[in-house]
Amino acid sequence: MWADRRLMALCEWAPYLSNLYYCVHRDFEREHHAVIVGRRRYERSIGGASDQGHLYRLRRNTHRLEKGLISRPRRDVFARDYLPETVESFEALYNGPTARERDDLYAWAESVLRSYFDAVRPGLNDRIDALRARFHKAAEAPSCEQPRAPYERATAPLPTTIDHLMELAKRRRSVRWYEQRPVPREAIDQAVKVAGYSPSACNRQPFEFRVYDDPQMIAQLSNVPMGTKGFSHQFPVFIVIVGKLYAYPFERDRHVIYIDASLAAMALQYALEVQGVATCSINWPDISSREAMMAERLGLGPDERVVMCLSAGYPDTTGLVPYSQKKPLNELRSYNQMAGNPTGAAE
User: Fold this and answer.
1) Which of 37, 53, 175, 325 suits a disulfide with 302, CB 3.0-4.6 Å?
2) What angle is formed at CA 207 by the lines to CA 205 and CA 213, rounded to 5 degrees?
3) Is the full-model pTM beyond 0.85?
């Protein structure tokens, strides 16, 4: 322990030594491997191995185009650096003998690309004009449905007030005891739809909710995470949230699966709560043996990582929940706190 503390002190002083430290202490090895496998899978997919890379790239770049379209002021020419790959992915997915059926992603990308080429006038850039011709050949005619390009957001007051939201936040507790009755899949699906509207970096949504309501499957999975001993035997529903690192070509995005999935998980829990279905967030520690066990049982690839788990069900009205005192406002929030103004106090 003494030698380890000394080595950590050296790494604190010289950050590059951290690489050597973690050559010996291999706690980050699985993350390193997962990121590399994800990048390679993305690259092979773009090269034609599957359509997954094109799906994530088109979703990301369509969102980037939307941000350009809503800019103030909007530039006459923009998106030159990523427009070619956007059109390439659109063509790869929806044009040619092995094209996918036109779906929601097609309707959105087609509408946004059409708005882009309407906004960037012909004759301003030869390369964009060539891509315009390729897009119109691939898209043929405008979609008949309502355009899915940027629009003016509704501003009418919602019936839900901040007081209602506070009441919901206080009502939602981590419930560990459930009635032994099934949760309708319609209720779960409605909650997942709500979760799908959570913010996500470049709208890639690099996660999925794996829902289990079969008692035998729940028994195989619910004890893999730590902290469920003693109450996992009565879970009506068990949900595993899986992040997909093959959505990204760069290491810099390796943490986005955890951020985006967590945002969606909170929305899911609120959406279940308002339907009378309680939940409990179940921690997922980074332990090699448990990662391997869950990956084997779910059939996960090395670039698919569990973010967290949830139990769900109708709460047992006689079951208690922890009080769990939350931090006061002044410990959660500061204003204008920076290095030169560490307390955030007004000058």
Assistant:
1) 37
2) 130
3) yes
Among the ranges given (4-13, 102-111, 296-305), the one the predictor scored with the smallest mean pLDDT: 4-13
Task: Find residue 51's DSSP bridge partners.
Answer: none
Per-residue pLDDT tens digits for 281-300: 998 988 999 999 999 999 99
Strand pairing report for 278-282 and 207-212: unpaired
Nearest to 310 by CA among 228, 217, 230, 199: 228
Return the closest-CA partner of residue 234 out of 296, 165, 179, 309.
179
Query: Is 310 within 8 Å of 282 (Cβ atoms)?
Result: yes
pLDDT in tens, 233-288: 999 999 999 999 999 999 999 999 999 999 999 999 999 999 999 999 998 988 99
Q: Could you give the CA distance from residue 210 to residue 224 in angstroms, rounded to a whole number?
A: 15
pLDDT of residue 6: 83
Q: Hey, is 153 helix, strand or coil?
A: coil
Of residues 231, 214, 243, the one with CA closest to residue 282 = 231
Report d(CA 229, CA 225) in Å as an integer. 9
Each residue of 142-158: pLDDT tens digit?
665 778 999 999 999 99
Q: Terminus-to-terminus CA distance in the chain, angstroms?
A: 46
Structure tokens at 164: 């209602």
Say yes or no to pLDDT of 16 above 70: yes
Report the SS3 class of residue 9: helix
- Which DSSP state fits 76? S
Q: Which residues contact 128 (CB under 8 A, 6 or more apart)?
A: 77, 80, 83, 117, 120
In angstroms, the Cα distances linking 336 to 68, 330, 331 are 29, 13, 14
Task: Please give the pLDDT value at position 193.
Answer: 98
Of the candidates 56, 97, 5, 69, the one whose C-alpha atom is nearest the C-alpha of residue 249 is 56
- Which amino acid, residue 254? R
> CA 11, CA 286: separation in Å to the nearest integer?
22
> Mind listing the pLDDT tens digit for each residue in 37-50?
999 999 999 998 99
Beta bridge partners of 312: 237, 279
